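Progress report, Aim 2. The chain analyzed during this reporting quarter is listed below.
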Amino acid sequence: MQPDIIPLIVILLIFVSSILAAYLKLSVAIIEIILGAAAGILGLRPEEWMIFLATYGGILLTFLAGTEIDTTLLKKNFKVCFIIGFFSFIIPFIGCFSFAYFFLHWNTASSLITGIALSETSLAVVYSVLIEMGLSNTYIGNILMATTFVTNMFVALSLSIIFIKPTLFTLIFFIIAVLVIFLAYKYSDKLFKNKIIKNKVIEPEIKYIFLLLMIFIYFAKLGDSHAILPAFLLGLFMSGHFSRTKDERVVMVRLRTVAYAFITPLFFIVGGLRISLPMIISSFSLFAIFFLIKIITKFAGVYYFAKKYIPSGNMYVTLLMSTGLTFGTIASIFGLQSGLIDQAQYSILIGVMVTSAIIPTFIAQRWFAPKEEEDMLDIPQPEN
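Predicted structure tokens for the chain:
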């Protein structure tokens, strides 16, 4: 019996991605997606354990993004985040749906799935880029993560309202999520400050976070929902637990190290593996048009408000808000499994999202990255 070579190849891809990212000075997420796509072209297919860990990696990235939000800054700039996030969703949704329905004559359900999938902004990509650029705690970083959350909130709500039929288990998931977030917010200090278990090599604090996220995943699946939104809210409400003391900050550093060493790279590599190159080539014109519509409508929805409220980083914000991967993949998988879209439509949507995760991010990092980090911490907003 031959040993399974896929784990060896995956670890090799993770290692090579980190080396290339360091030398090329690009986000490792971009490299991981590209290498994943290349491996997929050569015949590598994700195994069940990879898909599970990739899903968990996306949830973990979302939680980490929530912990980086400055809640005081978020409250102060809630209007800005809501406006940019809403128009980042609604304009691409209308544009992509309209093209699919009126020009391609796809049915209503597949057109709606297309609009929902291509209107998202990938919180996982945005967060990864901001962390690597050292911008997660800046004004731009906080605004980006908050507006991305708002966009994805509308994506999740639209998918749930239009397609998902709530059941008793959906209500149970909602109750469990609220309960876990509340209890974690109120009582996590008792674990983090416990002298017997804190700062141990066995990492009970990190295992505690993993457990909370796994509870979300389990009950979300039970209720035909998804754990991304509660994971972000958990991170947001627990952000104070990771910033007040040196020991708490050390926990966050260790958690981030564990995540970026193996778990979150699988999220991006599996994202690349999902691309079906033959199907994209056979429908390349549609793929290219949908990609252009997504980017153009994202610019239409974001650029004006970004220029108004974040004048020194408007193009950087607009480009990163144009990325896709996380919720778009979830919506596409839901559409495929429910028979709302076929395999060819699914491949086009996944290809567009993966491409949008690469090209706008590359341009943003290469030519529009903020140069003066200290100037990004408190940018005065123009008058309304």
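The radius of gyration is 20 Å. The chain is about 75% helix and 0% strand. These observations will guide the mutagenesis work planned for the next reporting period.
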